[in-house]
Design brief:
The structure holds two protein chains of two kinds.
Chain A lengths: L4 E3 L2 E4 L5 E6 L6 E7 L5 E8 L2 E4 L8 E4 L6 E5 L8 E8 L9 E2 L3 E5 L1
Parallel strand pairs in A: 2-11
Antiparallel strand pairs in A: 1-3, 3-8, 4-5, 4-9, 5-6, 7-8, 9-10, 9-11
Chain B lengths: L2 E5 L2 E5 L4 E8 L5 E7 L5 E7 L5 E3 L5 E5 L4 E6 L8 E8 L8 E2 L3 E6 L1
Parallel strand pairs in B: 2-11
Antiparallel strand pairs in B: 1-3, 3-8, 4-5, 4-9, 6-7, 7-8, 9-10, 9-11
The chains are: A mainly beta, B mainly beta.
């Protein structure tokens, strides 16, 4: 079974440009999460989808960030326009609730550098 | 709000020595607790999780963690370190069986010396 995949693995852009990150969850997982780790700090929650609906987007830093999950499969996270402080590693995770509870499975992350 | 504290951003041990990575959480309700590991250039991999079934949780690669409610701790241990254990370790907490967001500690970088 394929794990969570993320694309691109790395992205270097200039301040003011737009970047779109993609996450493909494990097949059949209804829950999809985005997290971000800024250098030297903890991994922080951004938002949570259940299927195509935003369950919790309280972690989104500002309106320059837009997440979508059309059709309840893959998700995109767009940053427009990018600022220097947006640099970091963006992780995606997916999960399915079972009798044993919920475990989030993480992708390898996208390393974003804004110059 | 829940918070997770990992004491020590860097831990160094010799190969064969005991590994102890510390994690404390704050919450009025015992959460679900996790340890994840990130090897260089890879994503986060689940090591083990506590879901209230047993206070001593065994994970992969010989790691285990003990939930101590009185100390609000969930420290990760391994009796004998191996070079391949060198990685960054993250403690995380979620609210319940349907987790929602996870709250992470800042991570502990483990170095293993030969």
């Amino acid at each position: 079974e394929a794990g969570v995949t993320q694309f691109p693995s790395h992205s270097v852009i200039e301040k003011g440009q737009t970047v779109t990150l993609r996450c493909d969850p494990i097949s059949g997982h209804d829950n999809l999460y985005w997290y971000r780790r800024v250098m030297g700090k903890e991994i922080k929650f951004l938002l949570h989808f259940v299927k195509e609906s935003k369950q919790d987007e309280s972690g989104m830093p500002n309106n320059r960030f837009l997440a979508e999950r059309t059709g309840g499969t893959y998700s995109t996270l767009k940053v427009q326009p990018a600022e220097l402080e947006d640099s970091g590693v963006y992780f995606c995770a997916s999960s399915q609730v079972t009798g044993g509870g919920e475990t989030q499975y993480f992708g390898p992350g996208t390393r974003l550098l804004v110059l | 709000a829940q918070s997770v504290t990992q004491l020590g951003s860097h831990v160094s041990v010799s190969e064969g020595a005991l590994v102890l990575l510390r994690c404390n959480y704050s919450s009025s309700v015992p959460p679900y607790l996790f340890w994840y590991v990130q090897y260089p250039n890879q994503g986060l991999q689940l090591l083990l999780k506590y879901t209230s079934a047993a206070t001593l949780v065994k994970g992969i690669n010989g790691f285990e963690a003990e939930f101590k409610k009185s100390e609000t701790s969930f420290h990760l241990t391994k009796p004998s370190a191996h070079m391949s254990d060198a990685a960054e370790y993250f403690c995380a907490a979620g609210r319940g069986s349907t987790l929602g967001r996870l709250y992470f500690g800042r991570g502990t970088q483990l170095t293993v010396w030969p």
